[in-house]
Amino acid sequence: MKSQSSRQFISKAFLYSILVIATLLSIFPFYWMFVMATNTNEVINRIPPAILPGKELVANFTKVLNTIDFFGAMWNTFIVASITTIGVLILSSLAGFAFAKLHFKGKNALFVMILVTMIIPPQLGLIPQYIIISKLNWLSDFKAIIVPGLIDAFGIFWMRQYISSNVPDELIEAAKIDGCSIFRVYWNITVPIIIPAFATLAIIKFMYVWNDFLWPLVVLRDEESQTIQVALRGLIDNYVRDNGMILSGTFWATVPLVIIFLLFNRLFISSLTEGAVK
């Protein structure tokens, strides 16, 4: 018994050690970014580099505010990311429900075509999308980012797989026998079950839109409509690079992502627990 308990203790200690090391490695880039955001160029370029935070966080962030419209760009990005994420959740769940539970001709072929689009690099569609957006007079308009981002192949695939494995066909048939329409089956039965899938997809899509740089750089020409990733580019000077200022702006632009992740992660865990109890 003692040998068995000692082996269990050693295995648990090894497992927790691996988890602690993995956690520290994951957190270290954010910590290092914070350290550089609180120091001057002189301290950052010193060898060996500083490993403790400095006293220049407020000064560096003040430089950011004097260089770009930081809060305006953050608000623009939040609006675009929120609307796009909500739209993707609605449309992807509807499409996923149709592919998972409805029967119609060409369903499998259409689903395969959607999956094929996932292997095509998005850069290949840059010129055709730009031509369409310019003809619609959407340049420097949030619609140029929101509308193309509403259809997400991964979101449809994710919802279809989750609904197929977590929503029983018997439950849907029972609802139809009781007189429920297709939309009511989706809204009253499917949606409450797939809340964890909503939370996961929301985290992925929100972070993707928040971090997107290339497409907003192409279509958002006015400074007032810039997203945060495009605005941060204005911190880079061709002659003198203030790394403390750049990393300060990057650090504060990352904070909302951490908050969103923590909020949705808590919802994800509570939703899994609810589903387990039911």
From TrEMBL:
Keyword annotations for this protein, in alphabetical order, are: Cell membrane, Membrane, Sugar transport, Transmembrane, Transmembrane helix, Transport
User: In what residue span(s) does the ABC transmembrane type-1 domain sit?
Assistant: 74-264
Gene3D superfamilies found in the cross-reference section: MetI-like
Q: How does it sit in the membrane?
A: Multi-pass membrane protein
Please list every transmembrane segment annotated in the UniProt record, as residue ranges. 12-34, 73-97, 109-133, 145-164, 185-210, 245-264
Per UniProt, subcellular location reads as: Cell membrane
Give any Gene Ontology cellular component: plasma membrane
Q: Which GO terms describe its biological process?
A: transmembrane transport
InterPro entries for this protein: MetI-like, MetI-like_sf
Q: Which domain of life is it from?
A: Bacteria
PANTHER family with a match to the protein in the record = ABC TRANSPORTER PERMEASE PROTEIN MG189-RELATED, ABC TRANSPORTER PERMEASE PROTEIN MG189-RELATED-RELATED
Q: Which family does it belong to?
A: Belongs to the binding-protein-dependent transport system permease family.
This protein is called: Sugar transport system (Permease)
Q: Which organism is it from?
A: Mesobacillus selenatarsenatis (strain DSM 18680 / JCM 14380 / FERM P-15431 / SF-1)
